[in-house]
Write a sequence for this structure.
């Protein structure tokens, strides 16, 4: 398993918690700038961008497949702040969570 794969696995398994790249690589003998650069060159995204995209993908899945409230989906997706969640959601999907759900259910 490469360093990038390890980081991706950590994001996939723990996106709902507070995740920091420095915590993930703690104990590895690499510097944060080196890992950041390597991750971006291998994924095309920074750690934060990848984490955000993973969280918003989960939010889309929950919006499409559950009747949970947007505030609850925000928390389950790893956002403590609903306003932050809405902003990130709109940045990635170009629509609000409510608009996304309306598109799915008409």
């Amino acid at each position: 398993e490469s360093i990038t794969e390890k980081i991706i696995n950590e994001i996939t398994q723990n996106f709902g918690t507070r995740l920091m790249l420095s915590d993930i690589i703690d104990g590895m003998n690499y510097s944060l700038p080196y890992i950041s650069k390597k991750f971006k060159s291998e994924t095309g995204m920074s750690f934060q961008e990848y984490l955000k995209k993973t969280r918003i993908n989960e939010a889309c899945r929950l919006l499409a497949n559950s009747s949970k409230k947007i505030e609850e989906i925000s928390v389950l997706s790893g956002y403590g702040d609903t306003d932050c969640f809405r902003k990130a959601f709109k940045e990635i999907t170009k629509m609000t969570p409510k608009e996304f759900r309306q598109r799915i259910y008409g």
